[in-house]
Specification:
- It is a single chain.
- The chain is α/β, with parallel strands linked by helices.
- The chain has two domains: about 150 residues, HAD superfamily/HAD-like (Rossmann fold); about 120 residues, Hypothetical Protein, Haloacid Dehalogenase-like Hydrolase, Chain: A, domain 2 (2-Layer Sandwich), CATH 3.30.1240.10.
- It is about 30% helix and about 20% strand.
- It contains nine helices and 14 strands.
- The strands form three sheets. It has an eight-stranded mixed sheet with strand order 5-4-3-2-1-12-13-14. A four-stranded antiparallel sheet has the order 6-9-11-10. Strands 7-8 form a two-stranded parallel sheet.
- Helix 1 runs parallel beside helix 9.
- The longest helix has 14 residues.
- About 45% of the residues are buried.
- The mean pLDDT is about 95.
């Protein structure tokens, strides 16, 4: 364990969130206790800022949010920094996604996520029951909810500032083919990709990830990079886990993540693994 850790970074999905996309009251309470002790606690998630309030308990508070895999950072409602995908890149990727019938959600800042109406039919087809066995229930429920309630189906792209693209496919073959397409496009246009499950991929600004978000947040608060603790479970957490002084993988993490981490939690995300880990390690 890091000596006298001063800063903690927590992933959401598969970490503080269980597989039904909820943060437990126990996790909230232990974060409150740590912050009362003067320890800084940050969320570092692939989710956009607008996706967080619906999955946390009432009164949930942290010192800051790193969202969209490092694309934006917030203290409350105040933006510390925001990176944006270019409109040129957005339009090119949507064109490519349509050619490949790939489910996509585009996340503008300050507005609901967008999918174009002309792509609605094949996007909805990707989330029709039954759920493929290899798709996690949390990701499936999120996509079903997005299609039903959260996507703003538009005739045209609106806005000029975008935090990320999220892509999903019900088959791993389809999403792997799309990843190959994105890799080819990277030869022409500069951007970063990240994955958090075998059925998705996300697009951000080049050289942006959770670790770059951590650096910006630490600098904003005047905090040292030493004595930082990070907990995560998936590939998009690797930059964060590698950057932190001490890294912890969830019990439910893939073997690759566990191999990279300094420690693995005793309990998984459905068993309040973060709560039990922090309670034991900080003697709470």
């Amino acid at each position: 364990m890091v000596l006298n850790p001063k800063v903690i970074f927590l992933d959401m999905d598969g970490t503080v969130l269980n597989h039904f996309n909820k943060v437990s009251i126990h996790t909230k309470e232990i974060i409150d206790e740590l912050r009362n002790r003067g320890i800084f606690v940050f969320i570092a998630t692939g989710r956009s800022a607008g996706e967080i309030s619906g999955v946390v308990p009432p009164g949930f508070q942290v010192d800051g949010l790193i969202t969209s895999n490092g694309m934006a950072g917030y203290i409350g409602d105040e933006a510390v920094y925001e990176h944006s995908l270019s409109l040129e890149l957005v339009e090119r990727i949507i064109e490519k996604a349509r050619e490949n019938n790939v489910y996509y959600e585009l996340f503008p800042y300050g507005r609901p996520r967008i999918t174009l109406k002309q792509d609605k039919e094949y996007v909805e087809d990707e989330v029709k029951d039954p759920k493929p066995e290899s798709v996690g229930i949390n990701e499936w429920l999120s996509r079903k909810q997005a299609v039903k309630e959260e996507i703003d189906w538009k005739e045209n792209i609106e806005g000029s500032a975008f935090s990320k693209f999220y892509f999903f496919a019900r088959s791993t073959e389809h999403i792997d083919q799309w990843k190959d397409e994105l890799d080819q496009l990277k030869k022409e246009m500069n951007f970063t990709t990240s994955i958090s499950s075998i059925h998705n991929v996300e697009v951000m600004v080049a050289n942006v990830n959770k670790a770059t978000g951590m650096k910006q947040m630490l600098q904003h608060f005047g905090l040292s990079e030493e004595n930082t603790l990070a907990i995560g479970d998936s590939n998009n957490d690797l930059p964060m886990l590698e950057y932190a002084s001490y890294s912890v993988a969830m019990k439910n993490a893939a073997d690759l993540i566990k191999e990279k981490a300094d420690e693995v939690t005793e309990f998984n995300c459905d068993e309040d693994g973060v709560y039990h880990f922090l309670k034991a390690k900080f003697d709470l």
